Protein: Elongation factor P hydroxylase
Organism: Microbulbifer elongatus
Amino acid sequence: MTERIVTVFNDCFAAPDTLNTCLVGGYAEPYYRPASAPGERHRVEFSYDYPASALHEAAHWCVAGEKRRQLPDYGYWYAPDGRSAAQQAEFERVEVQPQALEWMFARACGLDFRVSADNLDAGLGPSESFKRAIWQQVQRNCHQGVNLRARQLAQALAAAFRQPDPMRAECYRLEDLR
């Protein structure tokens, strides 16, 4: 499963004449590494061989603009487990779009999607408002479209996994979010 996700992503984006970016698993922590020398590829690194991590990190890459893709980890902050309520609220605010895309990519692969609050030590699961915001973003994505990279990856994943078009709003229900 994960190998096929990696293959699809790399087929879409790894060639130097495309975006020169590869998806690579096997890491303890996810991280984005822009190429640091000519001939190198940008690397979207995901945790171990987890399909959800691969899709989530691919979603972050799809959200990041050209300038952000030149910065290590897109130039964003990351507060580890044990975030305060205020830090958790900020985390949820910036995670809506990546998690909405991750849900769409998971659907394209025929996989279940689970909302991630990414704050296990604090015992905080995803808030209901966070789930609603993700669902609303998916609805906007389906109705208004997504950027070219996200659309290309979603369509390529759906073709590779023989799944229906993941850009159909009726495929996503708020009550399905866990």
